[in-house]
Amino acid sequence: MSTIKSVTVSLKLNYITLFLTILGFSCTEPYELEFPQSTPKLVIEGTVTNLNQPAKVRLTLSKSTFRPVVNDQSSESYLSDGFEAVKDATVLIKYNDIVDTLQLAPDSVFVYQRDLEGNIYDSVLLPNRSGGAYGYYQSRNNIGFPGTLYILEVLWNGKLYTSQSRMPQAVSIDSVTYVYTQGEMGKPDYYLPHIWFRDNPATTDFYLFKTSGGGVWGRAILSDKFISNEITGLNVFRGESPNWWMTGYPQSGAYYSIEMHSIPSEAFEYYRALISQFRNDGGVYTPSPASPPTNISNGALGLLMASTVAIVSGIMPYPDF
Amino acid sequence: MNYFQHCILALIFYCCANPILSQKATLYGIVRDAKTGETLPGANVIINETSQGATTNGYGYYSLTTLAGKYVIHCSYVGYEAFQATVELTSSRQMDITLVPVESVLDEVVVTATKLITETAHTGKVNLAPAQIKTITTAAGESDILKTLQLMPGIQSANEGASNLYVRGGSFDQNLILLDEAPVYNPSHALGFFSTFNTDALKSVEVFKGVFPARYGGKLSSVVDISMREGNYRETKVNAGIGLISSKLGIEGPLKKESASYIISGRYSYAGHTLNVLGGDIGRDLLSLPGLNNFSDNNNIWFFDLNAKANFRLNQRNHLYVSTYNGHDYFYCFSLNNANVLQWGNHTSTIRWNHIFSEKTFVNLTVYNSLYRYKYSIAQDIRNFHWTSAIRETGVKADIVNYLNPQFTLRSGLAAQNRYFSPGVIKPASANSITKPFSLDNKNSIETALYSEAEHTLSRYLNFNYGIRYSMFLNLGEGTVFSYNSDYSQVVDSTTFAKNQIINHYQGLEPRMSLLVKLSQKNSLKFAYANTRQYLHLLSNSTVGLPTDTWLPPDKHVKPQSSNQVVGGIYTLLGEIEISIESYFKQMSNILDFRDNADLFMNQHIETQILQGKGKSYGVELLAEKKQGRISGWIGYTWARTFYKIPGINNGKPYSPRYDIRHNLSATGSYEFSKQLTFSSTFKLASGGFITLPEQIFVIDGAAFFHYPSRNNYKLPLYHRLDCSAIYRSKKNEHRKIKSEWVFSVYNLYNRKNIYSLFVRQNPDNFTSASAYKMSLFGITPNIAYSIMF
Q1: 3-class secondary-structure state, position A163
Q2: Which terminus has fewer CB within 10 Å in chain A: N or C?
Q3: Is there a contact between A18 and B703 if contact means CB atoms under 8 Å apart?
């Protein structure tokens, strides 16, 4: 799922290529491609939420090759997602006349373990996937307050990178219903969680949904430009994947969660561009691909996003037969 | 009376008795097909004794003025036996000519060519006959005008299989495509894989690349003027054909013998039904075709087109033509996306009246209507809605041709069209949809033009065609016009206009000229210049164009496009082969492109997403063409470069559009082995176009994404393929009423995997890594079709 805009301009495949794929006439194959060598760029991913958790800024470097870059510290090499972390920057977040200096996050954290009903039964110390080894910096406390303007400053290698983002007002999810859906050819029937909430008709609002569920990048966006303020059962679980047939629907009996972020307009445009990159076909039926529009200065890539979050979670029911 | 007075009287008497000594007379008339009665445009009519000649106009009309006397008149047209008759021309008279078609080039008749490329002052002009189009193999086995034109030098295709034409560096929305004088806004079915023109219904295709006469206007790059057949004035004929992708049926005949005729021709494609068969039990269980596990038999995909025309010869001086075209596409693919349905379609209708005012004056009056619309229905849970858009054009044209004398023909006229735009309307598809109704402001515009053009034979060696077109455009209310800050990031003001109030206007002069210098009987030079203006923009943010692209008029922010083009060339005849080497240089202003990540969907402030700038294109085109004989065809080669420079794109630096194809070679030939068997083949070799690839990869929110610092920074590899076909006609055809024909064709004979698209994407099993992929569309593709005519 995505916004109306993203859905309507996305024609992932035309039916002729589909038809020819069926018959085996057309094909998609890997292609050996080397980017021209260029200087890596600093990538800044900053998130400030109103949840009871610190603000986080991740600093990494971009790369000009598809081959993974593994950190030189062998104990961390298996943790790497292939992007070199930047651990020697100075990171500040300013808000309401407060200046918060972010520190590198711990490399290990206690992670709660849940049973099938979602109840916590234990906690275990695991490598922190939002830790310093990955380039994460975090504030000491929760600093997220709706309506507040956050200014980010990152000083690295003698260059200063800045950004700002204002946190929108909070919107809550009123309820979740489970809608029975007939499975496609050869697939079982399933339930899908649908969320209900009220959008503020007096303001222009944007939403980012983060969903659990494997196989897809569980992200979707929504703008209130074309929708009424009463959202009566919205499916946000389709997600994005290079394989067009994949969906992120949670299995019956499995734990699921939905985070609904109220986000500023620049974050909405940024995620719209990210979703377009999942659907890129080289510009044949889609626009020429382009970099997402960053709100960070001085040539850095990335985004500072301040958002308010509403979360629902639960266990997927089984269909009744 | 003295001797001197006698001489004066005798001289006066002699002159009175011999009025023909100084009297001119005009021979005029219509040239027609002897079997069907259809008019023949482009036929050559020559007075043998004086070598004066004329070419019939689009309605088969010719006019030749000469001194009174006795002459042998010769008329010729490709595919027809030559006509010859002796005429006593004492005063102006009408002589209609009928030409007998040649069934086969193997019949021993002499067929003289029509006006040669060395004799016409027009540059970049292409004439295609339906018979030529039918010999060209396409991927789907359907003959296709637009795919055939893509084999001509100077005309590119940006993607395999797509019908869009890119002419001398111009984008595909810069082509004026006319069907019986009505513009066709989306000339493609099936997302560009088929053109909307059913070859069986067509009479002629005339294309001007770049420099076109002043009677044409409104687009920058080319004119594709397509005429429908009139139908058989003598007897009723039916033809039908069956193919793997589509079938067609046509019927034509007299409404009143020799006076009125009709033709109705339709085509229906059942690609979706084929998909259903393959996606159902037969495909999965019996054929075990790959990739079928995710497909179902619940798809509904089809298109049709229907051409109909009625023609009336009211009397010798008046003809009336009424024609209409309807085409529609429907796409619902359950397997791909069971929630969406896309439909689109064109409708055109034209009424034309020809009147022969006098032997030297021919008038044509046209009234037409053209409508293009689409509807996209999205049924994704509670957001279900319908999205519609349309453009309607209604126009009138009047053309007067004065054949003043053998050296000078003057054509003048005017045109006026009203365009009504509905750029986008969203309506909820059900009562519980959360989608709000929303619509963009409708737009209304008027475009008018006056023109005058002359064909002037200055001497035996110099022909000069020149003309001027004055065009004016008015943007009318009602509507709201926004004002923005300098970078278009914020609205600072707005102004509301009442219905039919003039919002803004544009106007300008468009001079056109072309000069022919005949060096000898077989060699000539040509020079040409044209200024053109375009008062219509297509917002298409993809290479091949989508049915959901939106047409918009220029306004206060988005200005009309314009171009200046100069052309020079050498033209020669080598036996039956016409050879031309033509070079051009073209500058374009106010061409459009879009910001990175442009938001074009239902955007009230669409002008904030559009960027305008300059374009430049230049190149050399070589063409060698043989139109007659057992072997016919052409070889065309183009070397060209195209640049755009638009502030805000590619950091303001020049960049190549996708269709900047450096080298383009096409060779197509047809060999009539016997009356039953004809072989054809096409070879195409072209440089790759330009696409945008990233230069950096980075991670955000758990997935890899890409940084594109420049646009169209990567050139695709070479494209080439070979197609072959054979047409078999039953031996019994000669002696029976029902004639049949089989067509066997193979597209991409050596199965070259040409790149259709190249892109980078996240890896499906690990989103933090990525790979590059290439997609090839058509491997070796056989096709078979059968048709009957009676």
Answers
A1: strand
A2: C
A3: no
Nearest-CA distance from A196 to chain B in Å?
11
> What is the pLDDT, as a whole number, of residue B785?
85
In residues, how long is chain B?
790
Q: Is A160 on the interface with B (CB under 8 A)?
A: no
> B647 Cβ partners below 8 Å, 6+ apart?
B611, B613
Is A32 at the interface with chain B, CB within 8 A? yes
> Which residue bears the tokens 């069926």?
A22
Asked if the Cβ–Cβ distance from A283 to B757 is below 8 Å, we say yes
What's the rounded Cα separation, in Å, for the pair A223 and A219?
A: 14
Residue A185: band (very low, low, confident or very high) from pLDDT cuts 50, 70, 90: low
pLDDT tens per residue across span B68-122: 899 999 998 877 888 999 999 898 899 999 999 886 554 433 334 445 666 777 8
Q: Which residues contact B670 (CB under 8 A, 6 or more apart)?
A: B135, B631, B632, B633, B678, B679, B680
Cβ-Cβ contacts under 8 Å for B584 (sequence gap 6 or more) = B124, B154, B168, B210, B565, B566, B567, B568, B617, B618, B619, B621
Kindly give the interhelix angle for B271-279 and A15-23, rounded to the nearest 10 degrees: 40
Cβ partners under 8 Å of residue A246, min gap 6? A215, A216, A239, B764
| Residue A40 with chain B: CB contacts under 8 Å | 696
- Residue-by-residue DSSP string for B461-492: SEEEEEEEEEEEEEEE-SEEEEEE-TTS-SEE
| Residue B104: per-residue pLDDT | 57
Nearest CA among A85, A92, A91 for reference residue A42: A85
- Chain A residues with CB under 8 Å of B190 CB are 14-16
Q: Which residues of chain B have pLDDT under 70?
A: 1-22, 103-118, 140, 275, 278-297, 334-338, 380, 732-734
* Closest Cα in chain B, distance from residue A280 (Å): 7
Structure tokens at A313: 């979670």
Question: Which value does ipTM take for this structure?
Answer: 0.90
Mutate which: A11, A71, A245, A279, vs B, most B CBs within 10 A: A11
User: Phi/psi at B310 (nearest 5 deg)?
Assistant: -130, 140
Q: Which of A66, A194, A303 sits opposite B700 (nearest CB)?
A: A303
Q: What angle do CA B383, B386, B388 make, to 5 degrees?
A: 145
Which residue in B244, B243, B260, B261 sits closest to B252, CA to CA?
B261
**CA neighbor of B265 nearest in space, from B248, B247, B244, B253:** B248
Contact B733, B739 (CB under 8 A): yes
> How is residue A16 annotated by DSSP?
H
Q: What is the pTM of this model?
A: 0.88
**Contact check, Cβ <8 Å, A277/B693:** no
Tokens of B435: 């989608």
Instruction: Determine phi and psi for B115, rounding to 5 degrees.
Output: -55, 125
Both tokens of B151, joined, read: 């084999």
Q: Which residues from B are below 8 Å from A64, CB to CB?
A: 695-697
Tens of pLDDT, residues A150-169: 999 999 999 999 999 999 99
Residue type, B687: S
Structure tokens given for B232: 């058989």
pLDDT at B705: 96
Contact status, residue B214 vs residue B223, Cβ threshold 8 Å: no
Can you give B81-141 as a three-state secondary structure string?
A: CCEEEEEEECCCEECCEEECECCCCCCCCCCCCCCCCCCCCCCCEEEECHHHHHCCCCCCC
**Nearest neighbour of A24 by CB, restricted to B279, B289, B775:** B289
d(CA B746, CA B127): 26
Give the DSSP per-residue string, A65-106: SSSPPPPS-HHHHTT--SS-B--S-EEEEEETTEEEEEEEPP
Segment holding B544, helix H or strand E? none
Closest CA to A211 of A255, A275, A265: A255
